[in-house]
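Retro notes - structure team

What went well: the batch runner handled both jobs without manual restarts.
What didn't: labels got mixed up in the shared folder, which is why I'm recording both outputs here explicitly, each with its sequence directly above its tokens.

Job 1
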Amino acid sequence: MDERWVEKVHPLERMAEAEDPFELMAEPVVGDPGVMLDCMLEEFAWMGWNASQLESLFHHPGYPVLGALREYFGDEEVRRRITSLLARTGVLSFREVIAEPELEDDEPEVFQISLPCHN
């Protein structure tokens, strides 16, 4: 093995050390910030986040990449992209209806969940 590289060991199979706190660390990479912004917005919109919730993420200290994208594009452009995305896709939402068993001894049935498609 080349001495520049350290052997890969699964995290569950190695001891925790003070120098390796098992934290994810972001590293800058080359890429298109517009694509990154759109992808991040789509991901949260698919999880059901509405416009005000999406916008609040860009001011939350727990999301430094979104904060950096807001600084790069500005508040107006971020709002414009949120509005544009949600106008095209809407916000994913669910409504649940739980049917109680007819008799006490009956177990609830397994039922299929489906989403209406809007073209």
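Job 2
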Amino acid sequence: MELKEGVMLGGLKLEMRKALVGAEKLWKAFGQVLTVTSGLDSTHSAGSLHYYGYALDLRTRYFTTDEAKRVAYELQMKLGDSYNVVLHTTHIHVEYDAILRT
């Protein structure tokens, strides 16, 4: 796993470890090295779970559009309903959103 320069993972919640481990295995299966592009850093929308340690952004630029869709789908299936996996143009956003339901 690699971190984009400036990415901060200090304070990342334990629930996100499952996302990192799952994503790392999945990226490897697709012949890529997982790169985290945002953790508890950068600017996000108000109320973003990034600020609370419950969200990550993962690089996808080396995947084709179809591969990125498949990776996002497989990651969602691997993580289950407690997580939300969203494919954006430049990255996959992963958040532990079960925290919002408690």
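One thing worth noting from job 2: The domain at 2-101 is CATH 3.30.1380.10 (Muramoyl-pentapeptide Carboxypeptidase; domain 2).
We'll revisit the folder naming next retro.
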